[in-house]
Write a structure and sequence with these properties.
This protein is α/β, with parallel strands linked by helices. It has helices at about 5-15, 55-70, 85-95, 110-120, 135-140, 155-160, 185-195, 220, 250-260, 260-265, 270-285, 285-305, 325-340, 370-380; strands spanning about 25-30, 35, 40-45, 100-105, 125-130, 145-150, 170-175, 200-205, 230-235, 245, 320-325, 340, 345, 355-360. The strands form 3 sheets. It has a 7-stranded mixed β-sheet with strand order 4-10-9-8-7-5-6, with helices on both faces. Strands 1-2-3-12 form a 4-stranded mixed β-sheet. Helix 8 links the parallel strand 8 and strand 9. The longest helix has 20 residues, at about 285-305. The radius of gyration is 21 Å and the shape is globular. The protein binds pyridoxal-5'-phosphate. Pyridoxal-5'-phosphate binds next to helix 4.
Length: about 375
């Protein structure tokens, strides 16, 4: 098969299974609203859970950072790209989350890939919740270690895997809040099991950081757990992008030697590190934003229950409506759009086969009337 045939066949398959993806050009908005195709929609698709991507304090910090440092870092952190802004942010994150060290990465995807690539060896085993994010499962599949997946959020399933003998080290991998289901992992129980077995636990808290726990310190803090490896990302509640790995001193030094995504990649702009410091401050002082988000979640869940909509158990900002069939999910998203609401239809392979859904996300930027409008339209399109 030629290159062209191979590519065309893959595209045809995607089309036929109603799984073809297209990007939409976002012409602007304020988090609560979004402008696409010349229309303004109420936005229920973003991960900007606290609305910080539009926060004047964060924007001003970015601008001041650009004035001070210019717009780019100029190189890898191992050359000249690690500035006082990066250093300060790492220190603030480590202190806030109670770890000896934090290391910045350009994205959560890169952090997850880097960690598993740098840490895992052929005799090791990765035990991952089967609904873990693609960046984790893919990194695990590419690593020389064996990958075993356990039933979603089932500590006993992890315990069974931990009980099997392994020549090397075992690393259990999970998320704080699952990106497509919105449910939370039983972290305390998982960590108890890994500790007993002498294994390490890695938690990707992309969707919990900033939102859950005292001062928004995330799912682990909320559940009183300090995993050996914690990944937090800045594309969600922080309203920016980038990520950090929280770990002990020796692991941080090891990653600085062996994490290729750190060594061979340009560091984030220092101005972004300045904006992230401002976003961190907003999160630490953000009880009011978190309370507003919680009110929106409750309003949505109560309204949905009255309409007998089938929701998952999620009590987080991610409120998926399971639909099943790909085409039906696309049709429903389209009908919502016709009523001025932007909700993403998520289809396999992002979710398991037959698991197509409308992934509704709520934010602190939504007003109560936005939630009511969403419920009204969901009722009309009779999910
Ligand atoms: C659980 C989880 N981990 C990692 C990532 C990747 O993070 P980033 O967008 O910073 O690359 C995402 C989504 O973006 C995610 O949902």
């Amino acid at each position: 098969m030629s290159w062209q045939q191979r590519i065309e066949q893959a595209l045809d398959e995607r089309q036929q299974s109603a799984a073809y993806r297209r990007r939409q050009v976002n012409q602007g908005g304020n988090g609560r609203h979004i402008q696409l195709n010349g229309e303004c929609y109420l936005n229920f698709s973003g991960n900007d859970y606290l609305g910080l991507s539009q926060d004047a304090r964060v924007i001003a910090a970015w601008q001041q950072g650009a004035q001070q440092y210019g717009v780019g870092s100029g190189g890898s952190g191992h050359v000249t790209g690690f500035s006082t802004a990066h250093q300060k942010l790492e220190q603030q994150l480590a202190e806030w989350l109670g770890y000896p060290r934090a290391l910045l990465f350009i994205s959560g995807y890169a952090a997850n890939q880097a960690l598993l690539a740098a840490l895992m060896q052929a005799e090791d085993r990765i035990l991952a919740d089967r609904l873990s994010h693609a960046s984790l499962l893919e990194a695990a599949a590419h690593s020389p270690a064996q990958l075993r997946r356990f039933r979603h959020n089932q500590p006993q399933a992890l315990a069974d895997l931990l009980a099997k003998s392994c020549d090397g080290q075992m690393l259990a991998v999970t998320e704080g809040v699952f990106s497509m289901d919105g449910d939370s992992a039983p972290l305390a129980e998982l960590h108890r099991l890994t500790r007993t077995a002498g294994a390490w636990l890695m938690v990707d808290d992309a969707h919990g950081i900033g939102v859950h726990g005292d001062q928004g310190r995330g799912s682990c803090w909320q559940q009183g757990v300090r995993p050996e490896l914690l990944v937090v990302t800045f594309g969600k509640a922080f309203g920016l992008s980038g990520a950090a790995v929280l770990c002990d001193e020796a692991t941080a030094e090891y990653l600085l030697q062996f994490a290729r995504h750190l060594i061979y990649s340009t560091a984030m702009p220092p101005a972004q590190a300045c904006a992230l410091q401002a976003a961190l401050h907003c999160i630490q002082q953000g009880d009011e934003l978190r309370a507003r988000l919680q009110d929106n979640i409750q309003r949505f869940r109560q309204g949905a229950a009255q309409l007998s909509l089938t929701l998952t158990e999620s009590v987080t900002a991610i409120q998926p409506l399971l639909v099943g069939d790909n085409q039906r999910a696309l049709d429903l998203a389209q009908r919502l759009r016709e009523q001025g609401l932007w909700v993403s239809a998520i289809r396999p392979p992002t979710v398991p086969p037959g698991g197509a859904r409308l992934r509704i996300t709520l934010t602190a930027a939504h007003q109560p009337q936005d939630i009511d409008r969403l419920l009204e339209v969901l009722h009309d399109v009779s999910i």
